[in-house]
Design goal:
Helix content: 40-55%
Strand order of the largest sheet: 3-2-1-4-7-6-8-5
């Protein structure tokens, strides 16, 4: 099977270089970065990865150079801002039998491809997600990571931080991500689990702690719980996104 990675971006010049450098060496068939109108160097950085003057431009842009293995084709697209439309655009432009949606601040495990292929050997498995841990090791971070993984394993619902993957045919049958301003990951995985078995992989992605640092772990946990509760009782994602923007 072929596997395409789709990365939505918006002003990710700091997080994206290590993610691209790491991901390009993992043996996936293509990486499609879909930018939603960045005003920083995000698009220039992505373009540098496919430039004939790669090494020179990468050095000028302060992109990590150690252990880089450019085995994966990296493509840049633009789309209207919003993770849902950006990821849908990337999926439409991709060629893979399997789609993996990755955040710009998240690193896949080294065995990611093998883990996905192993899960999808079961014809009943329609997709899945990884366990998550934070890049900065701390007691609150370890606890939050365990809570996220446990909640996901119990409910069958995943968030974008967990690197959701899905068979293309299933993604298209479900109509992709709903065009909503937030909770697109929760909405999609809720529909996905009704389409077949969803793999909860023990391999861990490493994601940034920046959101938790910015707002504080307790405040962020409470905010996420409140937002999900309101979503489950029927408050529209549009209303939630306005509330989220105001609080953060």
């Amino acid at each position: 099977m072929t596997i395409s990675i789709v990365i939505p971006t918006l002003d990710e010049e700091r997080s994206l270089p290590p993610t691209l450098t790491h991901t390009a060496g993992l043996g996936f068939d293509e990486v499609i970065v879909v930018d939603g109108g960045s005003r920083d160097r995000t698009r220039e950085i992505v373009a540098s990865y496919s430039s004939p003057q790669f090494d020179v431009r990468r050095s000028m842009l302060n992109v990590p150079t150690s252990n880089f293995e450019p085995r994966t084709h990296i493509k840049l697209l633009t789309a209207p801002p919003g993770r849902a439309p950006q990821m849908n655009a990337g999926a439409a432009a991709s060629r893979g039998d399997v789609l993996l949606f990755l955040h710009a601040d998240t690193l896949l495990p080294r065995d990611a491809r093998l883990a996905i292929e192993g899960a999808l050997e079961d014809p009943a498995c329609v997709g899945g997600r990884f366990d998550v841990r934070f890049g900065r090791d701390s007691r609150p971070g370890r606890l939050i990571g365990r809570m996220i993984n446990l909640r996901s394993r119990c409910t069958g619902i995943a968030t974008g931080d967990q690197a959701i993957f899905v068979r293309r045919a299933v993604f298209e049958r479900l109509g992709g991500f709903s065009d909503i301003p937030m909770m697109e990951d929760v909405d999609f995985t809720r529909r996905l689990k009704h389409a077949g078995r969803v793999a909860a992989l023990r391999s861990q992605v490493v994601t940034s702690y920046r959101r938790w640092d910015a707002c504080g772990p307790i405040r962020t946990i409470l905010l996420m719980w409140v937002l999900r509760l309101l979503y489950w009782i029927g408050v529209s994602p549009g209303t939630l996104s306005r509330f989220y923007s105001t609080v953060r």
